[in-house]
Amino acid sequence: MSQSSQSNQAIEADPWGYAQKVLKQIKAPTFPNRDFNVRTYGAEGNGTTDCSQALKQAIEACHKAGGGRVVVPAGKYLSGPIYLKSNVNLHLEKGATILFSTDPNQYLPMVHTRWEGIELMNYSPLIYAFEEKNIAVTGEGTLDGQASNEHWWPWVGSQHYGTKAGQPTQKSPGNRDRLFELADNYVPVAERKFGPGYYMRPQFVQPYRCENVLIQGVTIQNSPMWVLHPVLCTNVTIQGVTVESQGPNSDGCDPESCKNVLIKDCYFNTGDDCIAIKSGRNADGRRINVPSENIIIQGCTMINGHGGVVIGSEITGGTRNVFAENCKMNSPLLDRALRIKSNSARGGLVENVYLRNIEVGQIKQQVVRVNMFYDPSEPKGNNIPVVRNIEVRNMKVQNGGDVGVLLEGYEQSPVENLRLINVEINGVKQPYKFSNVENILFENVTINGEKVTLPKETASNL
User: How far from 199 is each of 95, 156, 172, 254, 418, CA to CA, in Å?
Assistant: First the structure.
């Protein structure tokens, strides 16, 4: 029996017991009791002096000494990109703010990164680490990307985010579409050189192929695009973090092709998905072929966003074993509580997703949505997604929006084994709508005050 089959059997027998076993495997890194104050290396907290070199020197000294904390005391520190090294904890004390430069040229030279699920050489993320171990960003301070309708956001190509008529953007011919073409043709990553002239915004915090990552306590705001984006990492803890970013593609947290991730007691108020689990896109996702697995979400608060807990849409490598509990979601601008999205170009296997004890105030569109036809503008492919074994237990919704449960599968790949148990949805226009489903169970489900029981043989279209 394969390891995956054994894992599935263990989850089906006792899903939350399995989650506890995963939690025991996730251990936050610890650091030697040594501090390296950035002011010692020439940093000035006046908001105007460039402190990039001081931060770099403090990190290098800490790393060479065997690790410890790089301490940023109260004040405002202007910086370019920050590269974290093994055994370094970047610690922002209360009242400390790092203001990141809005000059794209400061984010050169280009680094190996992943952009919308595809590897390339691009601008450095604002905080970046590559193949490092035992790294952290902690404290009560603030990381401010200073993105706005004047900086970074106009690159998306939308007047709503400040794009002016005739301005080149990521959507200009030969930019974003060129990246997809290079990936589809398996051009080596080192030759996928973007950066200046291509308008591909960097992510905020991106540990890449790292082990033992901790992000704790800080406030992160005004990101160019995705905010927290661990890629191909193992043993990641994100705890007590506040994310405030209303820009385009400002996903709060996007663990991508990661294993053993804890997202706990965080606050997300975002311009896109609050938490979106990913694993690569299309041909490049199949080339790398690493799923996201063992993702634990606890005690988080979701305000604005396209979805609270989301899987996809860059989900080609698959996702399994996702557990979310004791979360609160509420905003007229929060589209969905649980969303799974893919299409026939992206494909991917999504299985073993468990939510329990979820409190939802207002939702704009759907409480639960599974969509295998996401982004109809993308050319269709032969990689039909598979979505199975989803359970939502103990959820109460005050205002469910347009449709309580919307499931959209393929005839040859129906949405399978989705269960709602002890769920109450109020204020919804349509209780549910299904197309191509199999083994859908409603147990003790009340919608708009009426108990809903599905037929034993659930019809493919309801």
Answer: 33, 8, 9, 21, 40
Angle subtended at Cα 235 by Cα 35 and Cα 287, rounded to the nearest 5 degrees? 125
Q: Is 301 within 8 Å of 274 (Cβ atoms)?
A: no
C-beta of residue 149 within 8 angstroms of C-beta of residue 167: no
Contact indicator for 399, 426 with CB cutoff of 8 Å: yes
Backbone angles phi, psi at 191, to 5 degrees: -95, -5
Cβ count within 10 A of residue 249: 24
Q: What is the CATH number of the domain that holds 97?
A: 2.160.20.10
**What's the CA gap between 302 and 305, in Å, rounded?**
8
Q: What pTM did the predictor assign?
A: 0.97
- Give 343-364 as a DSSP string: -TTT--EEEEEEEEEEEEEE-S
Contact partners, residue 17, CB within 8 Å, separation at least 6: none
Instruction: Fill in the amino acid letter for 102.
Output: T
Residue 146: half-sphere exposure toward Cβ, Cα within 13 Å: 17
CA–CA separation, 245 and 234 (whole Å):
26
- Residue 175: inside a domain: no
User: Could you give the CA distance from residue 382 to residue 290 in angstroms, rounded to a whole number?
Assistant: 19
Euclidean distance between CA atoms 372 and 157, whole angstroms: 26
The pLDDT of residue 4 is 62
Asked if pLDDT for residue 12 goes beyond 90, the answer is no
pLDDT tens string 118-160: 999 999 999 999 999 999 999 999 999 999 999 999 999 999 9
- Those residues whose C-beta lies under 8 Å from the C-beta of residue 83, and which sit 6 or more positions away, are 56, 59, 124, 128, 129
228 pLDDT above the threshold of 80: yes
Q: Residue 226 has what pLDDT?
A: 98
Distance of CA 289 to the CA centre of its chain: 18
Q: Are strands 309-311 and 336-341 parallel, antiparallel or unpaired?
A: parallel
Q: What's the pLDDT band for 17 if we cut at 50, 70, 90? A: very high
| Residue where the block lists tokens 């989650």 | 19
SS3 48: strand
C-beta of residue 274 within 8 angstroms of C-beta of residue 227:
no
Q: What is the pLDDT of residues 72-123, one digit of tens each?
A: 999 999 999 999 999 999 999 999 999 999 999 999 999 999 999 999 999 9
189 within a domain of the structure (yes/no): no
Q: Is residue 170 part of a domain?
A: no
- Do the domain assignments include residue 183? no
| Residue 69 structural domain | 3-146+205-452
User: And the tokens for 62?
Assistant: 């800490």
Give CA–CA dist 235/319, Å, rounded.
16
pLDDT tens track for 381-404 = 999 999 999 999 999 999 999 999
User: What total number of domains does the chain contain?
Assistant: 1
